Amino acid sequence: MEDTFKSEKFGRKSYAYQPNLWGDFFITHAVPIQKSNKWLKTRADDLKDEVRILIKSSADTVEKMTLIDTIQHLGIGYLFEKEIDAVLTNLRALTFESNELHEVALYFKLLRQHGFPISEDIFLKFQNEDGSFKTTLSRDARGLLSLYNAASLQICDEDILEKASFFAHDGLKHLVHDLKSPLRDQVSRALHTPLPKMMKRLEARWYIDEYEEEETPNHVILELAKLDFNIVQALHCEELKAISLWWKNFNPKEKLGYARDRIIESYFFITGVYFEPQFSRARIILAKVVALATILDDTYDVHATLEECRQLAHAVERWDKKSAEILDEYLKIVYLTLINLCEEIENELEPSEKYRASYLIEGFKTLIRSYFQEAEWLAQGYFPTFQERLDVSLISSAIPMLCCASFIGIGDVATKEAFLWVNQNPDMVRAASEVGRFIDDVIGYEREHSMEELPSVLDCYMKEQNMTKDAAVIRFEEWTRDGWRRLNQAFLEPTAVSPVLIERIFNFIAMIHVMYIHMCNGFNEPTNVKKYISLLYVEPLCI
To answer: Could you tell me which residue ranges the Terpene synthase N-terminal domain spans (predicted)?
Structure first.
């Protein structure tokens, strides 16, 4: 078959993205004050002490597991990391005996999510001799939901969990419409996105309301969850104001009208990577990096001529403000904003951390090399092989660069060894890039074709395998599941890299799943995420 296609990119292209939906809203927005910050924090501290007593005093194993799961589900697990670690370490040493599907699945999920190796054989008791799951379980909605969430933590070569996932999914699909809220709502969400892959902050917001509806909620835990949500929400709004002012000063709407204006969506995305207060610096840095990477992507994809693409790529390689002189006016803005951002980030780092900025700069250089390669192929009308397209596309997805960037603002756990590890493209980063790329290619297929872009990875695979789109999509979905299994595996393998950093990579890819699948391509269609942004940053909980 021919390895060329008709290319129209000899001049400029254009694509009409949805506009910024928020304007200056978060510059002036303040969360309605129900109580003073001092009162909130004092009351929260008192409640934390009560919850610690609850955790330590709970003697029954199932009661203890349920307590830990509730605390994590309500979004306050980060407040009790030492206590939870102690409980789960003790649980791991137990021989847990139960014939209740929900209890066994909960035990499995808690341990595996915490990085403890636990065998899938724990579910053998629920199978028939032929390996199928017992039909008597098909009406146990709570048990099936717990099994489905547990099975989403599957690693490679786990056939029992593979069967469990399909069994639970099919069972829940048949039951969901007959269930009552809040269980019906939880099942509906899980069918789109299993709990371990869901955005933790958003899930906590939903679950706080749902937990309040339960027959016997623990009011100490519930009150703490509400208080903490509002305290953290106020911090997030302060950060949104800061990055909104930074973005307004950049003013891409006026200067770079062709590009996506997505600073609020970028911050929302990064809230899914780390929402906790201790990661404030990291969150602001990564949100800015994502927003600017989006501008660079759109510059290469939808606006710049090939010669402009080449000039910008050469300037970035030199990384010298004087190189801006050779660029067109709009490219000068892009280029100098990029350099200024990296300088700004370096200035915010401690003296012992400043070396980290060099990894960010090299990440941007590598990213732009991949963008330029794609621009050259498009201008030449070259139809790359599947492997050629995949190798470049995994880099142009920006995921390797952003995985590294997610470490930059974190504290001492982000060691030099961690930066060396993430930049060697270990299997976890490769798997993350593949999952992100395959999801984006499938979800964004129609949009990219309307933009007359370079053939996608999906296009190249279809051509090479002489395969229909539907058949290729099935294969991509299989590869996506395999990528998730490898990501889950990374939690269980010993490494010199802190689990705190490993979790950022997992959360990053989970947010791609949430934004593109659960929220229907929300980064490119911001109306699809507006209500979720309002839930997290505009609407406080009533106390």
So the answer is: 22-191
